Amino acid sequence: MHITKRTHALNERGIAHLLLPLLVVALIAVIGGYIFLKGSPAATVGYTFKSGISTGKTNDCLDVWHDGSTLGTTVDLYTCNGTAAQQWNINANGTIEDANGQCLDNWKALKTNYNPIRTYTCSSTDGAQQWRLTGNTLYNPMTGKCVDDPGSSTTNGKPLELYTCNGGKNQTWVATKIGTASTPPTITPTPLPGGGTPAPTPAPTPTPTPTSGGVITAGDSKANCVALKGGTDGEVSLTNLAATEKATGVTYNCLETFANPVDNWNDWEAPWQFTNDPSKTASGSWENWLATGHQMILGVDLIPQSAPGSSNGTSSNPSEWETACAAGEYNSYATQLAKNLVSYGAGHIVIRLGIEANGSWEADYVGTATSEMSNWAKCYDNEVSSMQAVSGASFLFVWNPNVCTLDLPLSDWYPGNKYVNIIGIDAYDADCHDSSTVAKEGWQAYYTDSSSYPGAGFPSLSNIEAFAVANGKPLSFPEWGTTSTDDGTYVTDMGQMFKSDNFSFESYFDVGDDGIPQLGSSIPNSTAAYTKEFK
Q1: CA spacing 20 to 30 A to 382: which of 20, 105, 183, 433?
Q2: Cα distances (Å, whole numbers) of residue 419 to 145, 157, 311, 386, 422
Q3: Cα angle 445-450-453, degrees, rounded to a multiple of 5
Q4: Running along the chain, 535 residues long, what does each successive block of 10 average in pLDDT?
Q5: CA-wise closest residue to 312 among 361, 368, 375
Q6: Backbone angles phi, psi at 103, to 5 degrees
Q7: Composition of the chain by helix, strand, coil, percent to 5
């Protein structure tokens, strides 16, 4: 943990997209009782979709992230800018096509809430790409759900999701014809022959409104989370949660918990958070926490301690388990873990896979040989691929080095952008060299550790942030906290970095273990600083 000046991780895209010719060749067609604009064979783009959320600033629009043409590119919210990334054809066959010739897609055709909206090869027979414009909502008939801006965000780059239709402004997408100064009439169902009308968009429960910091996404969502001491059976301790919220003034939408280390594969496949508590519907159960619109961050090692070569096993030889895992021998365990999580109602949680694996105290310690680091990354890739392939799975994965630990080139054991959604940094209030606090040495030295560890590969705060920026990934602080002193300076500086740079979430380690004091009266300066920065 250390530093010089901070590199802001906000990826400013600017107006870098090439504008397509704004020639609109349109044919109005009535299909299945709905009006669509048919695009020309040359894919002339006719519409933008403006969000119903208004904050007095420039409107936000339905956007293809970085105007990406890769299959599976995220569809996000971004300030309306007239670029090709925000131009769409509303085709007569029910698909909505972007400027790259790919279509708006309910990813993997899943019917669960929170499922990502992305782009994919157009297919008029794919129910995941059928959309109806009813009452300014983008409604998917196959699922009966709508394109949703989670938490009514106005954050650029916020990934959009599928969610139960509720008629809210965060599900309002006003189709605006390109080249006109005003919004055209809302595209609504045309009366069917015989006087009938298409079934209205269902409107049950509203999207859960996130509290301080919003919902965790693979973008600059800045969600505030906390790790708490659980109840006797590992359930959510609502008493502890209430105490922390009272001490800080922050209301938490997400909690962090740890399913590591575990002894064997059976325990690895079935996290104790969901198996210890017999009362699955009780208010303190993790199932109920998730079912009521909250989020969970789950720490999981790549392997249990019984795996051959585990650093907590008998031989302590990482290459043993890494070679097997890289060859796909553990894929079935990852598949079963994902199936179990989906069955618990936890198919959309955030998973810190391979926590702090650059630390030799972890069962899945990466090792120092180039071959070990390479196989560790391949193991990670295999497990992520296996888990995401399970029906109902829509996890976010965090790759999470521990700051200050081993001078291993980050790129040598990075799993790759396809398998990582968020990059995490565990950064407690202790200098890498002599454990000095930020109050003692200053933020600059803490952030870079340049005085003792000048190498670009060393996992200092500054190097990890630069690595995240280079890979286009948001950062997170999955674990952080003051150590033995009441260091309000550290909390303030961490808060400032979190607010100014590209951060998905932060989670203060408020468990009361490992020498990390809990927020409250025992550390009044740190608690006051926390409230100021995060409330």
Answers
A1: 105
A2: 27, 19, 24, 11, 10
A3: 125
A4: 26 30 30 32 64 72 89 88 91 90 90 88 91 86 91 85 89 82 36 34 35 74 92 80 95 94 95 77 82 92 93 73 97 97 94 94 93 97 97 95 87 96 95 83 83 64 91 96 93 95 96 91 96 95
A5: 361
A6: -115, 150
A7: 25, 20, 55
